[in-house]
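We modelled the chain as a single entity of 228 amino acids. Its sequence is:
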Amino acid sequence: MNIKILLVEDDTSLGFIISDQLKSDGYEVTLCTDGAEGFKTFNDGAFHMCIFDVMMPKKDGFSLAKDVRKIDKNIPILFLTAKSNDEDKVEGFKSGGDDYLTKPFNVEELQLRVAALLRRVNIQPEGTDQTLYEIGEYKFDTINFELKHQRFEKVLTKKEAQILKILCQFMNQVVAREVVLNGVWGQDDYFVGRSLDVFITKLRKYLKEDEKIQITNVHGIGFKLEVV
């Protein structure tokens, strides 16, 4: 079983130590050093567990967990923090965390908590990340970036595929604009916002072969991929 763990820790020395230990335990680990990068990496890949530091630049661990929970309600999330007071622990659980490890901690405790969380959810890696979506009359292959209809075929750019994948994960639901921006660009500002609008226009054009499909703007919130 090839279990993939996303580790987001801004202390690079500690991050490398944790990563090396988990790799020696047989896990496949991806290390990010800030919350925005962590969320983008989460959307780009398929993971079975997340380990988040709490105090990080660009996006703290609690905010990162909340964004991840909007996409995946079941993936185990373990927080690492130097704070040990009850208020912080409560905030961690409210934001979607499953467990809490206070720094400094020993390696054995980390190993046991990771193993316990993975057992708790009884993960089966083969079916964790959906790679093929049916969008009305279209088929979307997220691995090869291929969007196919009987009258249309298109190999999407990486960003087009990332945006469409997020919309598919929220199909017939509203997805917040900032979730898409942070997931694809790792930031939320005016300039990338304008780029997102351009990509949405392109995706609408690609999906026009099926009149039952719409990507609608939800004013002040984000977008909705509707399939009637």
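As a brief sanity check on the tokenised model: Residues 124-128 have pLDDT under 50 and may be disordered. The CA atoms of residues 42 and 206 lie 26 Å apart.
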